[in-house]
Amino acid sequence: MGFFSPTSRDDRQSAAPTDAGTNYLLWIDGVGTWLVYLQENLRIGGPGRPGSSSPLRSEWADLALLSNLSRHHATITRSGESYYLEAHAPVLCQERPVNDRVLLSDRATLKLNQDTILSFTQPTALSTSACLEFTSFHQPQQRLDGIVLMADNCLLGATGENHIACKNWPGSVVIYRQGDQILCRSRQEIYVNEEPASQGAVLTPGCLVSGPELRFRWEVIV
After folding, report:
1. Residue-level pLDDT at 7
2. Sheet containing 24-28: order of strands
3. Which pLDDT does position 5 carry in this prediction?
4. Which residue in 151, 115, 150, 152 sits closest to 134, CA to CA?
5. So what's the pLDDT on residue 82?
6. Angle CA(119)–CA(124)–CA(129) in degrees, nearest 5?
7. Cβ(219)–Cβ(27) under 8 Å?
8. I need a surface site. Which of 7, 155, 175, 217 has the fewest CB within 10 A?
9. Cα(156)–Cα(154) distance, rounded to whole angstroms?
10. Whole-angstrom Cα distance, residue 158 to residue 89?
11. Strand 74-79 and strand 63-64: pairing?
């Protein structure tokens, strides 16, 4: 499958620690833009007040969609290896009303109000991380191709068993947590800011990761 354990070797890094409580944007050339969300709770709601400083969040929601939703419409919570959806306003999960809280399964369809639809997936058994995609095309103010709810790692590669499918890549890249740092590594030759990183390197805000037929930037959300 092209994957390997993100803790299989000693890591070699010299960069300063990053804040693993921060969330990031992953800009992947030829693929798209993904939010990498590290917190256990994701609040979903409608747009914030005009002039909000964040194109993704509002004062009530971590993910503010341009849709007719309540300010805090629903919450997705990671608990161990499981994810739960809590409804604060009308929500359907697999076409069934959510009156309180429901356990999410792979490929669950979430409908908020009548027309805002999200797809929840856990594409690989090698990771407890999950993904959200915008089935109905309702987006935050800044367009995203999806969200990785990152628990332990985020897998990028050509097959559908990755969190982010990068179909033209010759190999895979793993982004993973280690203590208070976020790192990446790969079995193929990759570089972080032109420094060798195949065996593990810390991702810092604004860094550029490149390799044969792959390139992405790691940006902090302010």
Report:
1. 38
2. 96-97, 91-93, 108-112, 116-121, 130-134, 146-149, 32-37, 24-28, 214-220, 207-211, 191-192, 195-196
3. 39
4. 115
5. 97
6. 65
7. yes
8. 7
9. 7
10. 37
11. unpaired
- For 193, list phi and psi in degrees, rounded to 5: 50, 45
**pLDDT score for 51:** 55
First to last CA, the chain: 35
pLDDT at 9: 33
For each successive 10 residues of the chain (222 residues), what is the average pLDDT?
37 39 90 96 88 81 96 97 97 96 97 96 94 96 96 95 94 94 96 95 96 95 76
Taking the C-alpha atoms of residue 6 and residue 16, their distance in angstroms, rounded to an integer, is: 20
Q: Are 200 and 35 in contact (CB under 8 A)?
A: no
Rounded to an integer, what distance in angstroms lies between the CA atom of residue 14 and that of residue 23? 22
125 contact partners, CB below 8 Å, separation of at least 6: none
pTM (2 d.p.) = 0.88
CA distances (Å), 152 to each of 5, 124, 156, 171, 182, in order?
11, 12, 14, 20, 10
Strands 101-103, 108-112: parallel, antiparallel or unpaired by DSSP? unpaired
The whole-angstrom separation of Cα 112 and Cα 148 is 19
How confident is the model at residue 52, as a pLDDT?
62
Q: Which residue has the tokens 């590290």?
A: 38
Would you give the DSSP letter of residue 10?
A: -
